[in-house]
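Collaborator request, handled under Task 6.
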Amino acid sequence: MQNKPKITAVLVDDDAHLRKGMKAMLELYASEFQIVGEAENVHDAIAVISNQNPQVVFLDIQLSEGTGFDILEKLTELQGKISFQVVFITAHEQYAIKAFRFSALDFLLKPVDPEELQKVVAKIQATLQKHENFEHIELLLENIRKKADNFKRIALSTAEGIHLFNINEILRCESEDNYTKFYFVNGKSILISKTLKEYEELLGGQGFERIHQSHLINLAFLKSYIRKDGGYVVMSDGSHLPISQRKKERLQEILKTI
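Structure tokens returned to the collaborator:
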């Protein structure tokens, strides 16, 4: 019986102790990974990644001479596009974390939790089996460059791969157990294996409102609010969606300002 080929990885962090700790954790919890190179700064990371052509890069954001984003920008310039999976390792940097979520990119918070590492490893293994064009990494760099909090596009990961969508084309989102179904203005819909709560947190500042346990709507496509029959909204596609009792007052306040 042949052994499965290892998943090649490069580890970039300016703290030698953290690199040593990550290597030990990967050996313990993800033996299918093989670290083929390490780097502690932007220059060395670009050289190692270019030479080794890894499948995955574990990338610290804040390095002693630059950032992990600088590495991705330079590699994009040199190679035309990124062609490897990226897992960011970061301290609590809220803006970057929000940008990661909008770009469907994985990240690990320091100190790295073994359970979170195992989850990320499982996602990487699943993603490597798909045909990936890495456009979501370009989306991340675009958002990081702008440093704007008003994101225009979002990356959504489906069973087939990661797809980019304009946020202003999302009509509404509906909870289906631990999944979320996205409905678009063109009539299409897709199912994502994340909860509605996660997208409520992401899209809440983008003109979306949670009106019910099962419904998150884009207020731009709210056609009317009907008070009878317990209260419901009519969306631009003709769908009728219920409003939970505790959300009615909030929605009425919002409608006064529109």
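The cover message to the collaborator said: "The mean pLDDT is 90. The first helix runs from residue 16 to 29. Please let us know whether this matches your experimental observations."
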